[in-house]
Each structure stands twice: as C-alpha cells, then as structure tokens.
Automatic annotation (TrEMBL):
GO terms for cellular component: plasma membrane. Its EC number is 2.7.13.3. This is histidine kinase. It is an enzyme of class 2 (transferase). InterPro entries: BphY/WalK/GraS-like, HATPase_C_sf, HATPase_dom, His_kinase_dom, Sig_transdc_His_kin-like_C. It comes from Dyella psychrodurans. GO terms for biological process: cellular response to phosphate starvation.
Length: 116
C-alpha cells in the first residue's frame, strides 16, 4: 500500500521509488522512499488521520479517500509496530514501518557441517 501511495501522489517530475528492509540489532525497519512530491511539514503530523488530504484537490482527483495511511498506522499498532513519516523539500519522502524484536523471526543460521 505504501509503495502504491508513493507512486500515486508524486508530482509530474520523474520520481524514483525504493523499498528497503533492514535489521538493526533487535528491531527492523521496512521503508518506502520516493524522490517525488515533498509533503509540507505542517501536514506531516496529520497524515494518518482518517480522511485527511494534503491538498483539497490533488488526492481526491486521483481517487484517494484519505484512509490509506490511517489504515496502515492502525494495522501496525495491532502488531506493536510504528509508522514514521519524513519529508524533505527537493528530496522526497520516506515512510518507515518499525518492528520491535517481539515481531521478528530469529535470524537464519546456516549449518555448514550438516550431513547431506
């Protein structure tokens, strides 16, 4: 959902969308990074509110309901995870889902001495 959101809300200039999964100690982050539309700082705190739109016309014209990020935040909360949204002018936006150790599988270990 987040990658689709990034693609739908980019401006007319070419944008690049990257997806990253990274473990950091006993936690992990799943991030969607885009180089398109920058979300104005005064809107960041409200982005996960139901039916909230950054602009009165752009999101509704593209078929958005204003529920996507609200649903993402709610589902992450059910999994003891968090949503972090950052946006930088002329660089784009990063949407990060952070998961604590209680939601991660143990890292895989490969036994090189296993009988075959």
């Amino acid at each position: 959902m987040a990658a689709g959101h990034a693609g739908k809300h980019r401006q007319s200039r070419p944008a690049r969308i990257s997806i990253r999964w990274e473990r950091a100690g006993d936690s992990a982050n799943y991030s969607v990074i885009d180089t398109g539309y920058c979300i104005p700082a005064d809107h960041l705190a409200r982005l996960t509110e139901r039916f909230y739109h950054v602009s009165s016309s752009g999101s509704r014209d593209s078929g958005g309901t204003g529920l996507g990020l609200s649903i993402v935040k709610h589902v992450l909360g059910l999994h003891q995870a968090r949503l972090d949204i950052r946006s930088t002018p002329a660089q784009g936006s990063t949407f990060t889902c952070g998961f604590g150790h209680e939601r991660l599988l143990a890292p895989e270990t490969h036994d090189t001495h296993a009988a075959g």
